[in-house]
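Progress note, sequence design subtask.
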């Protein structure tokens, strides 16, 4: 098994001791990418949950691109929200990135997220 740290300047740098993503080659033809939770720090205080979610998904897209993958490679998503009342608005934006065969997913309301953002999304992708 080989492990490669994936980093792009097109998404926010890690805020702590973690990587934007880690790509693992588990077999000669299979790569797995574990993308750390992405946030939209610059939009969190503006109160537009759809703009915040859009930026989070674009951050994920930039990391996928750096790893030579795209949204179709995502097999699992985890969405953490500050307020489950925003679920429909988040889901609307999130769904645009998966027009067919969306990944498995869970959405969890949490008490607080880093930097007091409203949504954080992490994904696992396979190639």
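Output:
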């Amino acid at each position: 098994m080989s492990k490669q740290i994936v980093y792009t300047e097109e998404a926010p740098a890690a805020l702590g001791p973690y990587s934007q993503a880690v790509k693992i080659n588990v077999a000669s033809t299979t790569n797995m990418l574990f993308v750390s939770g992405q946030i939209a720090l610059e939009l969190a205080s503006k109160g537009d949950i759809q703009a915040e979610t859009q930026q989070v998904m674009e951050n994920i897209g930039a990391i996928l691109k750096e790893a030579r993958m795209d949204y179709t490679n995502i097999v699992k998503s985890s969405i953490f929200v500050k307020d489950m009342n925003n679920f429909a608005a988040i889901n609307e934006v999130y769904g645009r990135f998966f027009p067919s065969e969306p990944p498995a997913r869970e959405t969890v309301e949490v008490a607080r997220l880093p930097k007091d953002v409203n949504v954080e999304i992490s994904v696992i992708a396979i190639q």
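The mean pLDDT is 91. Work on this subtask will continue into the next period as scheduled.
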